[in-house]
Amino acid sequence: MQADPQTTPSPLRILILGGAGLTGPHQVRYALARGHSVTLFNRGRTALPADLAGVEQLQGDRAAGDLRALRGRTWDVCIDNPTTLPAWARDSAQLLAGNVDRYIFVSTISVYADLRQPPTDSSPLHTYQGPDPYAESMETLRASGFKLYGPLKALSERDVQQSFPSAAAIVRPGLIVGPGDATDRFTYWPLRVRRGGEVLAPGAPRDPVQVIDARDLARWTIHLAEQRATGVFNATGPAEPLTFGTMLETIRTALDARATFTWVPAPFLAAQQVAEWSDMPAWVPSDGEAAGMMRADIRPALEAGLTFRPLAETVRDTLAWFDALPAERRQVLRAGLAAEREKAVLEAWKKGTTRATESAPL
To answer: CB of 318 within 8 A of CB of 333?
Structure first.
């Protein structure tokens, strides 16, 4: 990771909506280290890390339209981390349009309508097909199997841009990983490789993969605030293309693990009902409906100063964080294959390839 800018920034008053999730605490720490003041606005249901206990917190509930704590206050910039629903974006952006100078909205790469090709920051976005986007809730989102996630995020971006037509930055991260990631979508791989033995590796070694450490995303978001940046940015990494094979080899080397990789093609995994992204986290087939998802164009973000720490550092720090969690949390991962299921799929693959070899003509 490149060194931070040496110039001392002018202190900013930063409002962070959310702030207690994966990226937020890293944003707070880095902003304070840079000399900025920080205010958090959230429901107060998630405890902040002990080292951030003194940060100002305002309580409200955006799902209930309760933004009263924000009235009458001013900030230089707002960083909106958790918004999923257009009503949240509309209400907060309209209120804050007179209270803050700039608005940084953390969106998602899932807003793109067609991920068969690598998306650029100007690729077409999903369109909402429901009756009323402002009536949608987290319950209806879940009921849709999260199929509404991309369209609702795209509408949320639009609402922010309407309230801040010349003062909004839209950040579209890919898979956010690292210490604090409650989804286990990346954590599965360091844990599985550390366990050693034969590891089921999905697809082919050449399949692309993109991830971003939450700490790198957090630092860059603060730099965007300091630069008064506007525009749209895909935010994932690393800077140079990364393959799934290289990622797994990097993990093995970083952990000095005794693991071997057996690559199982995507069609066989599909036939075995091994799902991309969930059973095989952080992976999508390189020739499917989401083939471009892991090849997003990040050149504008790189030009705006996005940098990345070594993947091996993320691997080791993620494991250190996970190992410190309570035992009951560590017992069942939230993504990836259970050991018994992985073994069964590997055995089925080997039997199939053996039969194919035996039946092949001489």
So the answer is: no
